[in-house]
Amino acid sequence: MVAVRERNRRRVHVELSTGQGGMAARRVPQVWGKKVPPRNRNFTGREDLLDRLRAGITGQDGITGKVTAVVSAPHALHGLGGVGKTQMAVEYAHRFGAYYDLVWWVSADQPNLLRSALAALSPYLNLPPMTATGIEEACNSVLDALRRGDPFDKWLLIFDNADQPEDLTELIPSAGPGHVLITSRNHRWSGVYETVPVDVFTRQESLRFLAKRVPRTDGDPDADRLADQLGDLPLALEQAGALQAETGMPVSEYLELLAERTAELLSVGKPSEYPESMTAAWGLSVSSLRKSLSEAVELLRYCAFFSPEPIPRDVFNQSHPKLSPEIAELLNDPIRLSRAIGELGRYALAKIDNTTSRTIQVHRLIQALVREELEKADRERIRNEVYLLLAQATPDVPQDPSKWSEYFDLLGHVQPAQIAESRDPEVRAMLLQVVRYLRASGDYGSARSFLEQFIKRWSKDGSSEEMDVLRAQRHLGNVLRDLGDFQGAYELDFRIMPTMERVAGAEHPETLQLLNSIGADYRASGEFSQALDHDMKSLERHDRAYQKRDPQTARVVNSLGLDYGLNSQYEKCKEFHERAYILHRALGRTGDAVDLLAPWTGLARAVRLCGDYAEACDLGVEAHAFGVTELGADHPWTLRAAKDLSISWRRVGEFESAHEMALNVHSRYLRLFGLTHPDTLASAMCLANIQRTMGEIDGAMTLAADTVNRYPSVYGSEHPYNHGCTGNLALLSRVTGEAAKARTLNEKALAALDARFGRDHHYPLTVAVNLASDLAALDEIEAAVRLGRGTLRRLTRLLGGRHPMTLACAANLATDLFNAGMKEEAQNLHTATMDHYAATLGQEHPDAIVAKDRRHLDCDFDPPPI
Fold this sequence. Notes:
Blueprint lengths: L1 H9 L20 E2 L14 H12 L16 E4 L6 H11 L6 E6 L6 H6 L10 H4 L1 H14 L6 E8 L16 E6 L10 E3 L5 H11 L7 H9 L4 H14 L3 H17 L8 H17 L1 H10 L7 E2 L12 H7 L2 H13 L4 E3 L5 E3 L2 H10 L2 H18 L10 H8 L4 H4 L5 H16 L3 H18 L5 H16 L3 H19 L4 H16 L3 H18 L5 H16 L3 H17 L6 H17 L3 H18 L5 H17 L2 H19 L4 H16 L3 H19 L4 H16 L3 H19 L4 H16 L3 H19 L4 H16 L3 H17 L6 H7 L14
Parallel strand pairs: 1-3, 2-5, 2-6, 3-4, 4-5
Antiparallel strand pairs: 7-9, 8-9
Helix pairs in contact: 6-30, 7-8, 7-9, 8-10, 9-11, 10-11, 11-12, 12-14, 16-19, 19-20, 19-21, 20-21, 21-22, 21-23, 22-23, 23-24, 23-25, 24-25, 25-26, 25-27, 26-27, 27-28, 27-29, 28-29, 29-30, 29-31, 30-31, 31-32, 32-33, 33-34, 33-35, 34-35, 35-36, 35-37, 36-37, 37-38, 38-39
């Protein structure tokens, strides 16, 4: 990255000529977005507008008469469709592209896809791709890099066909050194930014355009009449010029046909926001196209029901059994299909991009005119068949990052409010695949929005108990949980479960997947024993319905690993995570890498909780490396692996590595999810724990206190994690000399955890160890000894006599016994404890050193994932 910045600093920018698209010297931007449309070779005129736009966007005074910020003033090109706003932006990009290091085009007519379009820029800015970080994180990183001008300080962003200014408020890097250009039909932009209104051609521009498009019209007096009839509208002139160029039709004949067609349109009162002559010009082009190749007209009709965004050419690569015979026959004949696509381009009814993008794009006005001439029944039929083509083109592995670019290209044509109207099972299945892609790629917000629209519409179509609605609700529960809305997920899943079992059956795949989700709901609510009972019964049902090596069964096995860990049964926790890991390994990782990383990380955590810190580090390093390679460093599951690795390093005594990792993970979670997401809070507590361990007490106290305050809003006030983290805050209070405050906090936490679990659970026993230290610090030695004896007995029974937690309790008790005057008992316990340290962690481990010096060891809590 440093090399790139240095290269940019040393580069001498060549001053370029702006006349008629020529340049004194041509420099290619280092990054040229693949979505930037090709230059229009017939672009004509607009020189004053381009000069005005360039002057304003660069802050040159004296041309527009207005002062504009040099580095950040976006400009909105607004006007009716067909006047050439987009073509102005395209011409600007190509004409002035050599001034920039980066030019990036964003189709802005679907606000919910704007972040994805910006996130796709991340690899070109030396940032992790959105496949690794999720869309939100990648988009934010891109905007930050653009604002900083790193690695490029000369960049151009173009938002084409934006609607409401509010849609772009957070997505315009206005403080950065680059330029932003916006095209829009909405005149409200004039109240936000400097605007350049784009009108129809001047008459001279119309005549120059026609002469360029059809050279024989140069000097033809009828050309002026034609421009007048078409209202100097660039799109209409393009249609007329293409037809004349393709057929050799003279202008006079075209005018006669145009008059006849216009009169016909007026006689039937066909409505349009454009002059009847525009509709007539389009009609003439279609009529000629029909004579040339009738199948091309049929293809145009189908293109009219996609969005105005570029349509991936591969959508038409294969027919579908439910398509009408005419279009099916065309799609089954690749030679005629290629010719039909070519004809659409030749008659200027579509823009054909045969570069690596391979797309077909039809102007929104032409689409509207095509749809308008069809009968209602034909409109519905073609629209539904287009949905089937989209469904057929959608990859069937939404969790596979290598397929995400294909999903993204198709996503622009999935308008939730419209496509949700379809009742076709294939289409609805495709929509749920799209939701799974959005969730897998980290775009939880869009996934939630899509699902809520689908559920609302599908519930209106029929019963709320239909399987499509139930499926969508199940997915929504998962997304709510991803977003940290545990209560919303809990309520939704439990509400629909009885209906799912009744409608689908107890062992239907959808029912079983929902069953596994409910286990997560129990864990999220702190009902750990209920989660274990539930998932044991769930595994029995899965075993009846699936083969032993099915991925879904392996997921339930992994869930049981989580359950056993939360219930302090760490050997069983390790056993089930290992089983799940081996099952997914045996499946060859043909599906989701998360399916392997989840039990792998769980296994490393279980090994750590069993007290084998060095082995946990080894497993954690491998799991984290796998996550970075397969999913990227910022993927949520990679971050979970990283957080657990940091804890293992802390436990084994590698404090510097633990601190660096914890700090890195927490900063990534903050950018990815914000302050109050469960994973952010867990990473904050992890960081506070290592800060305390390394003596950064003030920072640890601030972070721990903030985390404790935020936890109830996520989990509820009585969740065990709240009380476990309160124990960490108490520990810090004692370290800072407030032993009485620490005692009060720990007594409250212990009472709450006892009420939930009883005393024989790792969480209350952790608090009890620290509470004994509080009592000792307050010179209540007898009480400390009494609590220490009971805690050591319980820990030995629960974790074993050589577990590090047991040894910490034993070392503290030995110190308290010594201070209480019971020196022989104290010495015997101290000697046995040090022998155990020598046989396990080693005499040089930090815990062993503290125990040897007869100082109190502190026991902290790290909230595991649910």
